[in-house]
């Protein structure tokens, strides 16, 4: 019985009966996002303060109301209307979602942001950081109460499989793990240097009956065959 | 089916699905009527791709398509409509009555220390200094000095709006913190309730003992109806989430917390709205000195009756929670 590996993947089962995954964001990107948001807010405060100073008491009244709204509802606005991303979260590539990966709503966003002051307690988000570090899904106290997660918002586009390798039928039947290893290896050839590729494929000499460059080409061929490439020749 | 055949067969669906979602997110266009069907197909493709051990890249891509589809399909309308206000009021009052024990406990935690401190400060003029610095005491004393013509915070008439902003920022902030403190097993809420009770009790006791009650009570009676009750309700909301952590019943602590927070926030909507009214009254009504004291007491009493009737006796919220 092996213990499950510790990683930052989080899986949710949808009503469609499938699981899909996302990577949960930890303390550092969230803290950086907070710093960016804080700077934006600071900038707005300063601008508002300058304008208010000219208007006088009525201006200060509005300044106080706006600073109240900025303090408590700045994140709520962006989380609800901007797809779970405050400007800071957007630049860090993270977003807030419910724990079933659906977009956050008013209720959840307001809960997590009202409880921000508990996370801030006693200084500089100490409780929030402890909570993120200790919880399985990197949730601060507000996230736990609201049932939200902060995940990476990855925008990856599909890449076409383009290889001109001639598919090769393996000389011996391969187990599932072996097929997986070879196919994954072929997919990753663009990030591995060629000498290293040759070094790796040399391990497979018993299968390919050749070493060096020709061994590599054979292994890539097997990979292409596993992925289903058809021999046009 | 090998991966390349799979890819060739289905990638037109994926491409059009991707374009559909991009259009929807970017240009706010309506989703294709076939969107749900395509989404379910792609869910199926993701499962197949995993089960057949296709490349990580393809699985990631499909996973991401499913994620985007999931977001688009389960997105809810977040626009605020006017009708929601009546709905929120109904839910607020329903929830208050549902958790009446928390409300009573919160009231006791606020009033008992307040009464004790008030009596103590009334009979012993040194006790107040255990809570506040002498300069603070001198400051609030000067605010309610009957010989001044403006009471409350010292000000001219143009500062009403500024004070409105101040009361919003300060009082609603306190209410939000009182609520948030509830997550520490209720202790934070208990602390804020007792502390506010002590503070207000001390001020009231002190001002009464030095004979400034004639300006203090007419000033606070009106907005107090909304402000004090809203602070108590915020405390009750905090106690609700604290209690869910202490005694989660049949649920896990996390689930109990989530469910309790969902109810507690309904109380917070109402409390924030009440504090908004209180800030308005405090800035524009309570501070006015031209009105006779009798009128202020009468209106104040009316407001107290209204708040208590609305929250505990009115037919609102008596039905089952509306769907």
TrEMBL record, chain A:
<protein>
    <recommendedName>
        <fullName>RDD domain-containing protein</fullName>
    </recommendedName>
</protein>
<feature type="domain" description="RDD">
    <location>
        <begin position="25"/>
        <end position="147"/>
    </location>
</feature>
<keyword id="KW-0812">Transmembrane</keyword>
<keyword id="KW-0472">Membrane</keyword>
<dbReference type="Pfam" id="PF06271">
    <property type="entry name" value="RDD"/>
</dbReference>
<keyword id="KW-1133">Transmembrane helix</keyword>
<feature type="transmembrane region" description="Helical">
    <location>
        <begin position="42"/>
        <end position="70"/>
    </location>
</feature>
<dbReference type="GO" id="GO:0016020">
    <property type="term" value="C:membrane"/>
</dbReference>
<dbReference type="InterPro" id="IPR010432">
    <property type="entry name" value="RDD"/>
</dbReference>
TrEMBL record, chain B:
<keyword id="KW-1133">Transmembrane helix</keyword>
<keyword id="KW-0472">Membrane</keyword>
<feature type="transmembrane region" description="Helical">
    <location>
        <begin position="179"/>
        <end position="204"/>
    </location>
</feature>
<feature type="transmembrane region" description="Helical">
    <location>
        <begin position="102"/>
        <end position="123"/>
    </location>
</feature>
<protein>
    <submittedName>
        <fullName>Integral membrane protein</fullName>
    </submittedName>
</protein>
<dbReference type="Pfam" id="PF01944">
    <property type="entry name" value="SpoIIM"/>
</dbReference>
<dbReference type="InterPro" id="IPR002798">
    <property type="entry name" value="SpoIIM-like"/>
</dbReference>
<feature type="transmembrane region" description="Helical">
    <location>
        <begin position="224"/>
        <end position="246"/>
    </location>
</feature>
<feature type="transmembrane region" description="Helical">
    <location>
        <begin position="267"/>
        <end position="285"/>
    </location>
</feature>
<feature type="transmembrane region" description="Helical">
    <location>
        <begin position="80"/>
        <end position="96"/>
    </location>
</feature>
<keyword id="KW-0812">Transmembrane</keyword>
<feature type="transmembrane region" description="Helical">
    <location>
        <begin position="297"/>
        <end position="317"/>
    </location>
</feature>
């Amino acid at each position: 019985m092996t213990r499950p590996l510790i990683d930052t993947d989080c899986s949710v089962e949808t009503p469609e009966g499938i699981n899909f995954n996302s990577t949960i964001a930890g303390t550092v990107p969230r803290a950086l996002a907070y710093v960016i948001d804080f700077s934006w807010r600071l900038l707005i405060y300063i601008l508002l303060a300058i304008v208010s100073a000219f208007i006088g008491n009525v201006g200060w009244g509005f300044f106080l109301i706006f600073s109240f709204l900025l303090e408590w509802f700045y994140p709520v606005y962006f989380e609800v209307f901007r797809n779970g991303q405050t400007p800071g979260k957007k630049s860090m590539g993270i977003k807030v979602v419910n724990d079933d990966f659906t977009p956050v709503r008013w209720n959840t966003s307001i809960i997590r942001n009202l409880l921000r002051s508990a996370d801030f307690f006693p200084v500089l988000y100490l409780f929030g950081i402890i909570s993120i570090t200790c919880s399985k899904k990197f949730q601060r106290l507000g996230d736990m109460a609201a049932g939200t997660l902060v995940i990476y918002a990855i925008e990856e586009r599909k890449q076409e499989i383009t290889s001109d390798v001639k598919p090769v039928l393996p000389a011996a039947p391969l187990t599932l793990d072996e097929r997986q290893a070879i196919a994954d290896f072929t997919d990753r050839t663009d990030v591995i240097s060629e000498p290293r590729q040759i070094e790796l494929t040399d391990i497979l000499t018993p299968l390919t009956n050749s070493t060096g460059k020709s061994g590599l080409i054979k292994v890539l061929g097997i990979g292409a065959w596993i992925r289903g490439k058809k021999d046009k020749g | 089916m090998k991966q390349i055949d799979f890819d060739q067969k289905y990638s037109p669906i994926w491409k059009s699905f991707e374009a559909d979602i991009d259009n929807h997110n970017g240009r706010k266009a309506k989703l294709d009527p076939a969107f749900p069907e395509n989404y379910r197909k792609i869910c199926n493709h993701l499962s197949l791709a995993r089960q057949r051990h296709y490349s990580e890249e393809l699985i990631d891509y499909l996973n991401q398509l499913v994620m985007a589809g999931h977001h688009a399909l389960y997105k809810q309308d977040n626009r605020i409509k006017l009708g929601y206000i009546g709905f929120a009021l109904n839910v607020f009052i329903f929830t208050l009555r549902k958790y009446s024990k928390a409300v009573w406990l919160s009231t006791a935690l606020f009033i008992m220390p307040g009464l004790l401190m008030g009596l103590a400060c009334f009979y012993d003029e040194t006790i107040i200094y255990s809570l506040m610095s002498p300069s603070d005491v001198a400051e609030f004393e000067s605010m309610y000095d009957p010989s001044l013509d403006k009471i409350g915070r010292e000000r001219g008439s143009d500062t009403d709006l500024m004070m409105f902003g101040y009361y919003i920022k300060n009082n609603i902030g306190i209410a939000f913190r009182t609520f948030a403190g509830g997550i520490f097993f209720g202790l934070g809420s208990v602390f804020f309730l007792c502390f506010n009770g002590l503070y207000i009790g001390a001020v009231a006791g002190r001002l009464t003992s030095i004979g400034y009650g004639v300006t203090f009570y007419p000033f606070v009676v009106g907005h107090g109806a909304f402000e004090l009750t809203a602070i108590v309700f915020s405390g009750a909301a905090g106690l609700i989430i604290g209690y869910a952590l202490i005694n989660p019943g049949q649920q896990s602590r996390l689930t109990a917390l989530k469910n309790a927070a969902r109810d507690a926030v309904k109380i917070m909507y109402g409390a924030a709205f009440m504090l908004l009214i209180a800030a308005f009254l405090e800035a524009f009504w309570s501070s006015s000195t031209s009105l006779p004291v009798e009128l202020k007491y009468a209106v104040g009493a009316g407001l107290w009756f209204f708040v208590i009737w609305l929250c505990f006796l009115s037919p609102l919220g008596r039905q089952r929670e509306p769907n």
